[in-house]
Amino acid sequence: MDDAFVQTIIIGLANGLIYALVALGYTLVYGIIELINFAHGDVFMLGSMLALTVFLQLGLTHQTPFLMALIMILGVLAFVMFATALLNVSIERFAYRPLRNAPKVAPLISAIGVSFVLQNVGLIWKGPAVQGFENVIPNDNVLTTFFGLTTNTEITYKPLFVAAVTTPRGPPRSGPPPPPTRSSRR
Known about the structure:
mainly alpha; 6 helices
């Protein structure tokens, strides 16, 4: 098989896993509160910006020892998950819950408004320019480093980390089905 084709598959899988994670979030939100949350992607954006800020404050670079970097990355992930969960709870409490019994278009307009607010928070916080930062995960080829293979196909730690974070683990849920949603009772 052509090395370029395999490399394209690897990149596509890594990007697809990120899209799947965002889509899963949309699905969960819609399944619970029956609202298309247009601010969902903006919360992801603010979470990424918060992680970038914390990485820079901690001084995390690709030269940080592996175990220390792993602990710092997992700690930052836990912190950012908590912060974005708190942000989502606040959004639900103040923007969506008061409109729970309103016509369907009112929460939808509220979700668009929250999206605009979060986008502007990001613009004020980091500005409109592209924000770059140093790689915190080494760009070593895992196939060469661990397996000693000489190939043009490159699998770095980044897609493996994305796969580890986004791939569900554990046995499938068993037991009684979840309770019906508000729309299924009508």
